[in-house]
Amino acid sequence: MIELVKHLKFEDCNTDEEIVDFWNRLGFLDGIENDFKKECVAKAMHTMAKKLINEDKYVDDIFPFSDFSVVIFPIIRRVIMDPYYKEINDFDVDFFEKIINDTTFVEMLKHIAKDHYNKLVELDIYNTIKEVLNNKTMHDITQEDCEKLKEQNIDLEAECVALIAEYYVYRIKERDEREKEEKRTEMA
User: Of 99, 107, 121, nearest to 169 (Cα)?
Assistant: First the structure.
């Protein structure tokens, strides 16, 4: 995917309109009716593509999905299309990168399901993912992990997209609530 983006000279896009047009031609914006959302998704994907191409840590990344962008771009789209993002026009790529580099899958599951953790533990899919990916981040996943989960009829690519997108939105909400509370405290 990144090779295709490079080949199509995405770096030649300089304006928001050119960026939206580029990602629209690739089909990444299909089904997004709202122009504001289209622009947000396109700009976030563009920024992430630059990171993926220009930063050494991603160039030689051996990733079981064959290409890191296979999960990154769908996560970006899913996050920005979340109803919480109705007024947000940016995607914090650095925060997102921190999540995928530093947070284990089990940490994400526990954080998202704080109030429902006991019910979550009862689910077979949770226990299987926990067993296979216990202390692993996105970059620690191996092809063997993918195969183990595939044997259990778990599509790791889809689960990664869903879990990371949900976790990102959850953490952004948490950050926003903390900032509001800090402002209230300052005003008091």
Answer: 99
